[in-house]
Design goal:
With about 260 residues, the protein is of the alpha/beta class. The chain contains eight helices and nine strands. The N terminus is likely disordered. This is Riboflavin biosynthesis pyrimidine reductase.
Amino acid sequence: MRRLFPVTDQTSASPRDPADREWSLDELAEAYAYPELAADGHWLRANMVSTLDGAAQHDGRSQPISGETDMRIFGTLRALADVVVVGAETVRQEGYRPARAREAFAARRAASGQGPAPAIAVVTASLDLDFSLPLFTSPLVPTLVVTGAAAPAARVAEAVGAGAEVVVAGEGAGVDTARAVRELAARGLRRQLTEGGPRLLGQFVAADALDELCLTISPMLAAGGAQRIAGGPSVTVPHRLAPACVLEEAGFLFTSYRRI
């Protein structure tokens, strides 16, 4: 593992240890840096949050089980990526907006040959999206819509008319997620980040396309019937990952596991 910060005693009223300070954005960027990639390589990481009892959402959204540091890491992971890949249902539920340029990461992105902000790529078979939203009408980087060759032609035309770039990654209406990874990489979007939702992450896992999971473990219990971080059919043999990074703050654990 790259780094392990000490776990703090949440019941203690003693002053915070110097090691328990807030991490700088540079430290977070170093902890979550993408690996060196071959000229034709790509790397897909997922960023998800889960309660202690396995809920990935509360009332259909992830925000209630998140926290301040989780959002700092969320922003850092976005700032390191070329593209953020997300499912259409998550776009609708979470009210997705375009990624923004962040001055704190400008020099790092420029040194890596990246543009000012990552693109957002929405994976959808039906293209049941509101193309009048800022995600499509006013992004800093054009939003991509990843779909299949048999997607509804009228909706494809509407997406293009709104300024989106349509990426075909499947022979039918649906998306072949492994092909989606390759198609995005072929456009120079090689440092990839998916923020779910659970159905899309499950598809990436089933296709053995996921290289890294960044999982925030929230110190909360939710019960109920909330989804896990990955849904869909199970794999024949569970995929084994190796721990790469563990951070802790305010009872939240911020973990990273990579493909062996």
